[in-house]
Amino acid sequence: MMNLAFSYLPLILLITLMVKKNPMPSSKALPLSALVAYIVVLLVFKQDARLVNANVISGALLALTPLSIIAGAIFLFKCMEVTGALAILRKALDGVSANPVAQLMIVGWAFMFLIEGASGFGTPAAIAAPILYSLGFPALRVALFCLVLNTIPVTFGAMGTPVWFGLSLLELPQQSVLEIAQQAALINTIAAPIIVILALRLVVNGTAHIKKNLLFILLSTCACTLPYLGLSYFGVEFPSLLGGLIGLVITLLLAKYKIGTEATIQPAANRPEAIEHSPKQTPEQPPENTVPLKTLIKAAFPLWGTVLLLVLTRLPELGLKALLQATEPALHISLGFLGTFHISTSLVASLTGILDTAVTWKHSVLYIPSVIPFAVTGSITLWLFRHSSGSNSLKTASQQTLTRMRTPLFAMLGALVFVNMMMLGDSSGQNSAAVAQIGHHLAQITGANWTFFAPLLGALGSFFSGSATISNLTFAGIQTTIAGQLSLPLTTILALQSVGAAMGNMVCINNIVAVTAILGLQNRDGDILKSTSLILAVFAVVAGGMGVLLVGVNGF
């Protein structure tokens, strides 16, 4: 019991510090919680000191991944801003529809759906949030909106990775994997309209505009989720990618031809605190798209170029994915007791044998979505607009990126060390990881009602790790054990795990820190966590209820 109580301690401390009346900034709350977790693992769980310290080093190095993605996303956004590409896109989007709800659905739903299917790694919110902010939507509301909606496509993530790799340790038959995918997609498809409307409610003032645009909202939502559901019957690689692509095209057409949208548009009513450069239209002066096609294609290069590079580097059949992740041939440098540093010709850096333990670290410089596609597309954008943006545009974008990166540095370092401490343990009962002990305890509390609560364990994994894939790797085994003990259908329980792992993205501290850093929000992490937690609870109830129905249908 003492180990269980101490397993909860760092988590309770973190949540308390971040959601109390005067919340502590995540840049302080996360390192402090990581320190407490470190003390617990070392003194209470009595883990080997070298192993604990090796995981601290590994956690600090792992922070390089989200930090580099954040830096790349900010750089791309700043390049779009200083070159004027963002202003052109904003004008073109108003030409498609000046309806704020339509713009939110195009960028924050369908486009993010597509990006998640191509990349993952928190890339969707990193791209969509700045675009929505540039359209005049308040930064805090944009952060909430993007976090909430970057969940449903995450079940399949980048080319199905959370499913085919996240569940790989279970060595399931292919048919079982497909059944898991189908049930997870069905649960998400049914939950999607509720979650989308709740997300819109965070941005749009009042319910009147949502009601007047309800048909459009439902059509746009289903335009992504119905193909997503259908594709899940054939494989796990393409539901989010192709579902998002199909949905984006349909949503653009729906918005363009005003299908299901309100006739009278009043953008200002939906955009309190609109930034100065946001477009200003009135009902009497409807927006007109006067952007020439050639100019639009050029201005949209940061978006379509990013998607193109992501697809090219993620499709295994093209060979680029394996090339960018190749660890050999490599240069090996001994760092003494710190371990051995390796750097391959593909710039895959790794550190093995940290403090003479089995702990390792790896960072694929060219595969992580930072240099490719963000830095590359940003740099090409500067070149494309070189005659109009001036010679100092690269310097300006780089300086603004570095300035913005100061905020998330300590938060991310604390977050990744915290995660490593909470997930450090062995397979025995006494020394199992804190997250595993918490998971088993939750299962014991719920007992026969586990089906209803199973998604929360998946969400817990994402809350800690920031990854649906890692959540599945960590908790799929526990879910399998619980399903066996309670005689529940394994595929349904693992489908609920996959749905929970995806919905946990909206409360993940890593993702919250990332999106606030990109939007330049200061000390609002706790407010965001409180708001997204409420929607997570609704999502969990819907998913759990669907799980109970599926178990009943299967005759268990």
Q: What would you note in describing this structure?
A:
With 556 residues, the chain is mostly helical. It has 26 helices and four strands. It has helices at residues 2-19, 26-44, 49-62, 64-83, 85-96, 100-118, 123-134, 139-149, 161-164, 174-203, 208-212, 214-231, 239-256, 267-270, 293-299, 301-314, 320-324, 374-384, 386-389, 393-422, 434-446, 450-465, 468-486, 490-503, 509-519, 525-553, and strands spanning 330-334, 340-344, 348-352, 361-364. The chain has a four-stranded antiparallel β-sheet with strand order 1-2-3-4. β2 (340-344) and β3 form a beta hairpin. α3 (49-62) runs antiparallel to α20 (393-422). The radius of gyration is 23 Å and the shape is globular.
Mean pLDDT metric: 85
Rg (C-alpha, Å): 23 Å
Distance between the termini: 33 Å
The backbone outline, from C-alpha atoms, is globular
Helix content: 55-70%
Number of strands: 4
How do the strands line up in the largest sheet?
1-2-3-4
Strand-residue proportion: under 5%
Structural class: mainly alpha
- Please give the largest β-sheet: 4 strands, antiparallel
What letter string, H or E per element, gives the SSE order?
Answer: HHHHHHHHHHHHHHHHHEEEEHHHHHHHHH
Number of helices: 26
Low-pLDDT residue spans: 266-287
Could you write a compact summary of the structure shown?
The chain is mostly helical.
Break the fold down into its secondary structure elements and pairings.
Layout: H1 2-19, H2 26-44, H3 49-62, H4 64-83, H5 85-96, H6 100-118, H7 123-134, H8 139-149, H9 161-164, H10 174-203, H11 208-212, H12 214-231, H13 239-256, H14 267-270, H15 293-299, H16 301-314, H17 320-324, E1 330-334, E2 340-344, E3 348-352, E4 361-364, H18 374-384, H19 386-389, H20 393-422, H21 434-446, H22 450-465, H23 468-486, H24 490-503, H25 509-519, H26 525-553
Antiparallel strand pairs: 1-2, 2-3, 3-4
Helix pairs in contact: 1-2, 1-21, 1-26, 2-20, 3-20, 4-7, 4-18, 4-20, 4-25, 5-15, 6-7, 6-12, 6-13, 7-8, 7-25, 8-10, 8-25, 8-26, 10-12, 10-24, 10-26, 12-13, 16-18, 20-25, 21-22, 21-23, 22-23, 22-24, 22-26, 23-24, 24-26
